[in-house]
Amino acid sequence: MRKQLHRKKRNVTYVSQDCSGCALKPSCTTAERRTVKRHLDDDALNRMDARAINIRTAAA
Q1: For the segment 9-55, what is each residue's pLDDT rounded down to a tens digit?
Q2: With bands split at pLDDT 50, 70 and 90, how would you rate the model's confidence at 58?
Q3: Spans of all domains in the chain
Q4: Distance in angstroms (rounded) separating the CA atoms of residues 48 and 11
Q5: Which pairs count as long-range contacts for 36-44, CB under 8 Å and 24+ apart, including other chains?
Q6: pTM for the predicted model, two decimal places
Q7: CA dihedral 38, 40, 45, 46 (to 10 degrees)
Q8: Where are the alpha helices (DSSP H) in 1-60?
Q9: Is residue 2's pLDDT more than 80?
C-alpha cells in the first residue's frame, strides 16, 4: 500500500498496489486499484461525533 501526505489539504491518500486477486473487489471498486483518503484529524472528529451522539441520546 502506498501512502501520500497532503499537508495543505490535511489528508492522507492510501493507494493499494493491486486489487485483482481480492475476492471483495467486485463489491469494493470497479477500478484497477482502490484509493482511500483520510483526514489527518479523522480520529478526533470521530470521537467528537460519538460524544455528540451520546449527548443527544441522553437528552432524549
Answers
A1: 899 999 887 788 888 888 888 888 888 899 999 999 999 999 999 98
A2: confident
A3: 2-59
A4: 18
A5: 37/11, 37/12, 37/13, 38/11, 38/12, 38/14, 39/10, 39/11, 40/10, 40/11, 40/12, 41/10
A6: 0.60
A7: 50
A8: 25-28, 42-59
A9: no
